[in-house]
Amino acid sequence: MLKRLSSAFLALPLLALLLPLAAEASRLEWDKTEVRIEMTPEQEEARAEYIVTNKGDETVRIARVKTSCGCTGSILKKKIIPPGESTTVTGTFNKGKRQGLNHNKLEVFLDNQPEAIATLHMIVQIPRLVDAQPQLVYWNPSTSKTDRQIRITLDKRYVTEISDIEYDHSQLIILEEPDPNGKADRILRVLPQSFDKQIRETVIIKGRGKDGMKAEARLHIFVQP
């Protein structure tokens, strides 16, 4: 019983220290905590701004902003926020070679507070100008020796046609046909020339659109005899 009481009394000072920090955090008001962005093909960087206002009576200081990915950065307009004033956290996202949906997080920490007081979400959609699904096909002794179907879809806002399909004709057989369901722009039927030798090949599907827009998708082929 004495041991339990001692633990409880030791926890009280720690609780007393944490309560003011929690109160400070609860008085911070964000204009938003989530931003959705759709990038254009020529765009390399996206930015999102989050404004936070100190609604409390005490000055608070933002110690740091932790990002969830090396592709994401943060810019803090000012760290110290007096009562009634605001600051802006700017999230930056570098596209690199990424495609599709990217969900990035920025965690905001106050001084002397181990837990983030806010998590900001930066959801970036990068268009897949030429999309091949699946992107990888393979054969091995346990799989059927039948063709693999690849569905090619174009983002018609930017790419209007398939201009070329590059592959090693000595290693692969590729037949093209329309999608009977009308969901894909093209269906590729892929077969290796031989199932008796190891094959590692890349197929490049190239597309083009108006104003000289060019894009490509890569399909990876493996055969393990």
Largest sheet: 5 strands, mixed
Q: How would you write the strand order of the largest sheet?
A: 2-9-8-4-6
User: Structural class per helix/strand content?
Assistant: mainly beta
CATH class of the largest domain: Mainly Beta
Number of DSSP-assigned strands:
17
How much helix is in the residues? 10-25%
Question: Can you tell me the CATH architecture of the largest domain?
Answer: Sandwich
Radius of gyration: 27 Å
Question: How would you describe this protein?
Answer:
This protein has 225 residues and is mostly beta strands. Strands 2-9-8-4-6 form a 5-stranded mixed beta sheet. The longest helix is centred in the first third of the chain and has 25 residues.
Topology:
Blueprint: H1 2-26, E1 28-30, E2 34-38, E3 45-54, E4 60-67, E5 72-76, E6 80-81, E7 86-94, E8 100-110, E9 118-126, E10 130-133, E11 136-139, E12 148-154, E13 161-166, E14 172-177, E15 186-192, E16 199-208, E17 214-223
Parallel strand pairs: 2-9, 11-17
Antiparallel strand pairs: 1-3, 3-7, 4-6, 4-8, 5-7, 8-9, 10-12, 12-15, 13-16, 14-15, 16-17
